[in-house]
Amino acid sequence: MALQKQAEEGSLTAKRERLRAFFDRLALDETLGANGPRASVRADRALASAGAGSPADAAGLLTGLLRERGIADCVEQLVEHVLRGGSVEAFLQRADDKRR
Question: Which of 29, 37, 48, 56 is deepest in the core (most CB within 10 A)?
Answer without folding.
Answer: 29
